[in-house]
Amino acid sequence: MSTLRTDITIDSLHERQRGRLPGLIGFRAVALDQGLLRAELDIRSELLAPNGFLHAATVICLADTACGYGCFAHLPPSAKNFTTIELKSNFLGTAREGTLSVVATGVHLGRSTQIWDATVTGPDGKTTALFRCTQMVLY
């Protein structure tokens, strides 16, 4: 099982996303611990679908980024990076304004793959989405 790398911090993750999709949507990692990453995203009109509700891709970007940053922070010492090889999301609700929260949890932190689950919560505190992804560790 991989452990949290001491060289990865919230600040280094924010620097890593500068000029990339997570930075463009406003992803904010707020806590990083062994097997866990918490993050937030403020909902704004650009992140809504044409129907005025939260776009599914916004929720997936939030959850996948949280899981990806969690994976990156738990890579084995000799690993260079990772890539997502599978993801699944179930949507249970939506929102139009406020802040989304996500908790990503490492379910399997292996040497060749990692599996991460994420729960996205809406501004009302209710679950918006359940998400799972498999990451391939790259050497």
Can you give a write-up of this model?
By secondary structure, the chain is α+β, with helices and mostly antiparallel strands. Helices cover 22% and strands 40% of the residues. It has three helices and six strands, in the order H-H-E-E-H-E-E-E-E. A six-stranded antiparallel sheet has the order 1-2-4-5-6-3. 31% of the residues are buried.
Please compute the radius of gyration using only Cα atoms.
14 Å
What is the CATH architecture assignment?
Roll
Number of strands: 6
Number of domains: 1
Give the CATH superfamily. Hotdog Thioesterase
> Biggest β-sheet, characterized?
6 strands, antiparallel
Structural class: alpha+beta
Attribute tags:
139 residues, Thiol Ester Dehydrase, Chain A
Quickly describe the structure.
This protein is of the alpha+beta class. The protein has three helices and six strands; from the N terminus they run ααββαββββ.
How would the blueprint of this fold be written?
Elements: H1 10-16, H2 21-25, E1 28-33, E2 36-42, H3 56-73, E3 81-91, E4 99-109, E5 113-121, E6 127-138
